[in-house]
Structure formats: C-alpha cells, structure tokens
C-alpha cells in the first residue's frame, strides 16, 4: 500500500510539470538558409531578413564574418512552479556563420543541435 501511494504521488508530481522557456538571439530556420547563395546573396539581403548579427568580426583579405546565434532552454518546473529541475533542461542552439566579401556571401555554415 505504501508503494502504491508513493507511485501515485510520483506520477502526480510529474503530471503537473510545466516548462519555462528562455530564448536569446535571432532564430534562423533551415529554410531561410536554403535561400542563401554563395556569390549571389548580398549582405544587405541577409541583414533585411535576419537583422543585425550577434557578432561581427573583420577577417583577412577584406572579408567579414557575421555570426547569428540562437539559444533556447526549456526548464521543467513542478509543484505549480515552486521547484525547477535544471538537470532536466532541454537546450537547443542554432548557429549561422556567414563570411562576406565585397558585399556578397563568400561562404556560410549552419548548424543546429539539441541536448
């Protein structure tokens, strides 16, 4: 009987879980990246579509690197939000790195990962 009550209590705790989501940066989807063409897409078009990058870095040979980083963290909360479980957090990160030369895209790299 004691085990049954413990089991019921455990299920009720997890059944009442909610998530708090925090985000940072500009969300870049794969379909947006698919529209980028090396040597054709302009820096102006990129900025119009995605806004200002998270980071800008001057490179050698007149190139510039634009870096867009988006992070999302979903943290479960229990007992009506009184207990947060950081160890159970679901994290995702998207990065788009674009190298610009003479006003157009020289190269780009996109990666997305979840933990």
Q: What are the defining features of this structure?
A:
alpha+beta, 115 residues, 3 helices
What is the topology?
Layout: H1 2-15, E1 18-25, H2 30-33, H3 43-50, E2 55-58, E3 63-78, E4 83-84, E5 90-101, E6 104-114
Antiparallel strand pairs: 1-3, 2-3, 3-4, 3-5, 5-6
Report the strand count. 6
Mean pLDDT: 85
Give the helix proportion (percent range): 10-25%
Spatial shape? rod-shaped
* Strand/helix succession: HEHHEEEEE
Distance between termini?
Answer: 38 Å
In terms of DSSP E residues, the strand content is over 45%
Number of domains: 1
Which quaternary structure do these chains form?
A: single chain
Reported for the largest beta sheet, the result is:
6 strands, antiparallel
Q: Low-confidence runs (pLDDT<50, min 5 residues)?
A: none
Using only CA atoms, what is the Rg? 21 Å
3D structure, described in words:
- This protein has one domain (18-114).
- It is built from 3 helices and 6 strands; from the N terminus they run αβααβββββ.
- It has helices at residues 2-15, 30-33, 43-50, and strands at residues 18-25, 55-58, 63-78, 83-84, 90-101, 104-114.
- Strands 1, 2, 3, 4, 5 and 6 form a 6-stranded antiparallel sheet that branches.
Concise structural overview:
By secondary structure, the chain is of the alpha+beta class. The chain has helices spanning 2-15, 30-33, 43-50, and strands spanning 18-25, 55-58, 63-78, 83-84, 90-101, 104-114.
